[in-house]
Amino acid sequence: MQTRLKSGISKPKRAFTSTSPNYLDVEPPSFSIASALTPWVAAMKDEYSALHRQGIWTLVPPAPSQNIVGCKWVYKIKRHADGSVSRYKARLVAKGFHQKAGLDYDETFSPVIKPTTVRIILTLAAQFSWPLRQLDISNAFLHGFLKEDVYMAQPQGFIDSAKPGYVCKLHKSLYGLKQAPRAWFERFTSQLENLGFTDYSADPSLFTYKSHNKILYLLLYVDDIILIGTLPSLITNLITKLQQTFELKDFGPLHYFLGLQLQYHETHPRPKAHPYLNPTHFRSLVGALQYLTFTRLDLSFAVNQVCQFMHSPTDTHLVVAKRILRYLKGTLTHGLLFCPSSLTLQAYADANWAGNLDDHHSTSGYVVFLGSTPITWVLEETKHSFSLPLPKQNIGALLPPLQRSSGFEWSSKIWGFFSLDPPLLWCDNLFALALASNPMFHARTKHIEVDYHFIREKVVRRDVVVKFVSTTDQLADILTKCLPSLGFTRLRNNLLLPFRPP
């Protein structure tokens, strides 16, 4: 018999073959590797020089009472759209896990912008044809001033030969410190206050500037900024003032922000999400799908179902997740449409009582519209549904959207618009409508808490109008239950609109 060995054919075993990666094409994992390559050495020198120019630290002798925080170099290759290397980036990062609470850090919380606020901003921009601009703060965390005494070891490869035993006393925040996000946020907000901006109480990351008929909104997400104003010159003047303090990158009109990719059709921005999905790992896949629900509310129910099995996924759950991917591939050209319309608030609320066949938990959901655009939607599961009767589930489903709509109505003065019409709440349950409007039913519904009678008080005072909508037209059904194909497609087409890809 002629074998491969006799024929001189051999296949090298992978265990005995070593291939060293090209660290000019992939990020080096350590300083020892990067220090042997000229492009990475130049990148570290540029970063070190930038830190010195900004006066991040001064060298001081060490003391026993000091908690010395370590640091390390982190490397990143910046690439062009075609995949070619744009530049090599090295960043010095402090080892924040060496910090001790109460000694070198205290408060660490930093506000993060709410997705609903972003959608409201886009709706206003489409309604009034306001310009949108996107900015980025270079090395944002390095601008924050530290309130605590933080000491850090000298960076590897750049130890001062005259003071090798000294440590760095940080004056400004550094990437990796626990208080770095908060320090940067406080520094930037104080600068905005000096320029006449005021923060929005419901979302601390939204700042407004009003002068006569001029309005300017600023959204802050870490180092990314969205500007929207009534006049382009107003935005340009603000950018000029910010450039006097911070190093800015002006990206021009807004195109991509927090997973939203905007396309402008006849001056109307229309966002869609294109995050990278990795179908090989269930948790990574489902985690990526969650970001899609930022603009794709038609995926909320399906993604919510697969998220319940993150701790112990099976092959069946992976098949369901891949089915969502197949559906997504066929509907890539669907997204939210932001266009001029009447700025009235209306909400659709629905409850699916004991709809879960596994544990008989109930599901409730609602979607709130500002004009013709959905600006917020919620899907939540109510546990212990056996102890909650059907009337309570239906009337309870009206409470969250009513509170959210009332909050938007109250805050409309801050946004700069005011609607004479009260918010409109649509419900497909006649008993819930009767209970909200007819006090005669209250004697027979004492098992429902007093909190739920808050709805009727709002209806009586005309703060909200509750109306009936047929089940076939109940848009919130897409959030609370599994629907047949025809019903699902019809509701999806009422919420999302197809568009022509670029």
From TrEMBL:
It comes from Fagus sylvatica (Beechnut). The lineage of its organism: Eukaryota, Viridiplantae, Streptophyta, Embryophyta, Tracheophyta. It comes from the Eukaryota. Signal peptide: none annotated. InterPro entries: DNA/RNA_pol_sf (IPR043502), RVT_2 (IPR013103). Residues 56-277 form the Reverse transcriptase Ty1/copia-type domain. This is Reverse transcriptase Ty1/copia-type domain-containing protein.
